[in-house]
Amino acid sequence: MQTQQSTVSTTKGIDVGKIEKELAAMWKPADETRDSQADSGVTRACTMNLLVYSSVVEDRAGIDEMLDTVCEQHPGRMLVLRTDREASEPKLDAYVSTRCRVFGANAKQVCGEQVTIEAAGPIIETVSSAIAPLLVPDVPVFLWWKDIPHYEDKLFNHMTEMSDRIVIDSSCFDHPHEDMQRLAEVIRERGQLMSASDLNWGRLTAWRTLMASFWDVPDYRQHLEKIDSVTVEYDPPDVAPDQIAPKALLAVGWLASRLGWSVEGKGEGEEDGTIFKLKTNGRVINVLMRATRREGNIDGMLVSLTLSARDSGAEFRVAFSKDRKKLETEASIGGAHSVGRVLSYEQKTEGQRLSRELSLLQRDVIYEEALLSAVQLIAAL
Amino acid sequence: MQEAAVIENPLRAGIRLERTAEPCTVIIFGASGDLTKRKLVPALYRLMQERLLPAEFAIIGLARTEMNSDEFRKAMREAIEEFSETKRVDEDVWNSFAQGLYYLTADINNPSDYDKLSDLLNQVDRERGTQGNHLFYLSVAPKFYGEAVKQLGEHNLAKPKENTWVRVIVEKPFGTDLDSARALNNELHQYLDESQIYRIDHYLGKETVQNLLVFRFANGIFEPLWNRQYIDHVQLTNAEMVGVEGRGGYYETAGVVRDMIQNHVFQVLSLVAMEPPVSLESEPVRDEKIKAMCAAREFTAERVRAECVRGQYGPGSIAGKPVPGYRQETDVAPDSATETFAALKMYFDNWRWAGVPFYLRSGKRLPKRVTEIAIQFKEAPLPLFGEAMQQMTPNQLIIRIQPDEGITLRFAAKVPGQVTNIRDVNMDFRYGASFGIQLAEAYERLLLDCILGDSTLYARKDMTERGWELVMPILNEWAATKDKVDFPNYEAGTWGPKASHDLIERDGRRWRRP
Ligand SMILES: NC(=O)c1ccc[n+]([C@@H]2O[C@H](COP(=O)([O-])OP(=O)(O)OC[C@H]3O[C@@H](n4cnc5c(N)ncnc54)[C@H](OP(=O)(O)O)[C@@H]3O)[C@@H](O)[C@H]2O)c1
């Protein structure tokens, strides 16, 4: 990945015209190569706008690395806003740069462009008015909010309004339970107006696929209606070790919303962990959520997910291998083990996860419903 | 109904979970062969890793070579390490996959071996929970297709039992002429329903070929222009840089028309020429494809002489390296009359295409490996810009299938300045650039589709026969006049014989340089 940078600096507001000019100038050498060698040179590609909000405390190199990954799959215009809310001195700077990668047999360069805006002090509130005219028309706008969402904040609201989809990461929530409740409220209130992606939900896709695939097997289907116990093991979140990890809540929320289980309240039990009582058509489902001892530096991860039906002695389990590098699945009916399997589980980088979210445009209704159910669990605590 | 009843899985809902296959066993005939280790098993392994196959899955390899299941597993592990992208397999992950691998030493021609196969299938269904769904992959020489299916039929392995399915994938080539293709279809149909037969055409597994459908029918702006009113002509180029790569013996009996044109090139062509299907399900799409091919004008001996060109490469050089001519390749006759290049002019006699020529060319040892379709639009009705317009080609839309899949639109623009100079500019869309994604291997897609029961990307009986029907007059005429050819007539590393250029230039047009 190569980048080329130039600076447009100003302290009194942002000169949008100047930024556009700088961007155009940056492409000029590229356009010239293109003309002289009809089939090589640079391809300027734009599949989306990506707005990135982060605070200055975020490590800049980390964000750059992520954007490199994103740009490989989704070249486009990146508008990166780095804010320092604490500063008393107002400051507003903008830089433009390109991000290129070499592609294909004849070493084509495919490039996207980036505008970085650094803002400090009270002036931050007004920045969105400089961002709006910089959006490339017609292609979708994604907002990656790399911070706890500030729902009451003017800037947050303006930026979500101009976006087709907002990407957050619930594993970074400071107060997991309250923050999830608040997110659910906002999604409910805004309805059609805001579609959200949660990187943490993306991390569950592999688990959900494997759990779902048990029920593709006709022989197992009958047991789905008999499930009466769920056990979830998770690594406690670093920030709040006494709270249940958002991912574990989302996993149960997903099962509950898909299978029509409603949350009745907290259940009783001697086991270490939290027990919830869920219900459907008169059947009670006990859900045990248990924090495991932390291994390595994997924060808030799911460790195992087991569904069982006492009546038929059926158990369906998806779990991490000991080294946390593989996922194992196993189904057993009446004590007889059927086929299990071990699949590699690649720890995706944050950039790869973000990239994946950027290929989705529709509202993720399944996520929203899982979140609402998860919030009901939290309310029962 | 031979499909197992599809049950709704409430946990599958949503935009993120991909469709996963039902439990099944894939039985590979020819499991000691090249295709199995290069493509089939690596593709199945990858599908498993991508979580697109269920745990209740097994592979049975079958060939005459003496091997036990453990030896087969070892060979397949080596194959995956050699031919798959990852190159390395994790011990536990491999062991879990390998548990589902079995091998049976058997001869396709020996009926009693099918009893052994039947027993093994029962055992595997029990052990692996594969639910009696069976996919037979015939990765053997074509002469075995008929016999294998006959034996499966006679051993009760071809008809699905209740709530299960049986499917058979047939590799290429499918027949060597119209009669043999018809005979083969008849043989297959004695024991199988058409819906059970999946004739592979790996070109259809390519992402861009599938994208042709999306491109044409999901974009409102192209379809209204997609006809004789706006299109001057269409060019389809299918060029390979390679020669016969040690397969001279096979190629001597084939030639480019049999090997490439009657199947791959016609499949792609039909997607360009077809009418919009009523839905994107497999039957409506294949109905429209065959309808288009039925409108293709038949070749007569006269048309073959006037509108078909054959060629054979002589010594030359490819990418700066000298290469021998076709007649110097191993297992090729020193006076061989087999064509390694062909160019045809085709017409579709229907309302959409009446009078629009389709120029096709396909060959080996051409300067560049490329498959592309170029749609050339008519010139602007009035040359408003006089001389400035003379150096320009009319608008072209180029759909590249390989390599660097993508779409280019060529149009005119003014060169900045006081005088009106007009230049062609390209507007480029590259899949790799826009979606930067590793496109899945054709075999992965095709295998998964077959397991899912989707035959859209497979060739239907009528299409295989129509392909042969169209090329038979060419093959016959060329066979009858094979003493008269002046082969070799093009140098390796050039764009085919002069006659190919004459064919199109006579009409006042030119081949596009891909
Ligand atoms: N290789 C490719 O890339 C490619 C591409 C397109 C199409 N194809 C087609 O795919 C098919 C297989 O190609 P390939 O390259 O894998 O061929 P190959 O390497 O020659 O393999 C042929 C296989 O058939 C088996 N076989 C031969 N006679 C048999 C018999 N009487 N009973 C049971 N098994 C028998 C052989 O095993 P034993 O000798 O152990 O019995 C071997 O495993 C062919 O139809 C070919 O046209 C291949």
Explain the overall architecture.
The complex is a heterodimer of chains A (381) and B (514). With 381 residues, chain A is of the alpha/beta class. Chain A has two domains: 2-163, no CATH class; 202-347, Dihydrodipicolinate Reductase, domain 2. Helix content of chain A is 32%, strand content 31%. Chain A is built from eleven helices and 18 strands. Chain A has helices at 16-36, 60-73, 127-131, 154-161, 176-190, 199-202, 205-214, 218-224, 246-259, 350-358, 365-380; strands spanning 2-9, 42-44, 49-55, 77-84, 91-103, 108-120, 141-145, 165-168, 196-198, 229-234, 262-266, 274-280, 283-291, 302-309, 314-320, 326-333, 336-337, 341-344. In chain A, the strands form two sheets. In chain A, strands 1, 2, 3, 4, 5, 6, 7, 8 and 9 form a nine-stranded mixed β-sheet that branches. In chain A, strands 10, 11, 12, 13, 14, 15, 16, 17 and 18 form a nine-stranded mixed β-sheet that branches. In chain A, helix 5 crosses helix 11 and helix 9 (246-259) crosses helix 11. In chain A, 42% of the residues are buried. By secondary structure, chain B is α/β, with parallel strands linked by helices. Helices cover 35% and strands 20% of the residues of chain B. Chain B has 15 helices and 18 strands. Chain B has helices spanning 34-49, 69-83, 91-98, 111-128, 145-154, 178-191, 207-218, 248-253, 256-273, 282-294, 301-307, 431-435, 442-452, 461-480, 498-505; strands spanning 24-29, 57-63, 101-105, 134-138, 166-170, 197-199, 231-239, 308-311, 313-314, 316-318, 321-323, 341-346, 358-363, 370-377, 396-402, 406-415, 421-430, 490-491. In chain B, the strands form four sheets. Chain B has an eight-stranded mixed β-sheet, with helices on both faces. The longest helix of chain B is centred in the C-terminal third of the chain and has 20 residues, at 461-480. Chains A and B meet through helix 7, helix 8, helix 9, strand 16 and strand 18 of A and helix 3, strand 17 and helix 12 of B. Residues 30-36, 63-65, 107-109, 139-142, 171-172 of chain B line the site of NADP nicotinamide-adenine-dinucleotide phosphate (NAP).
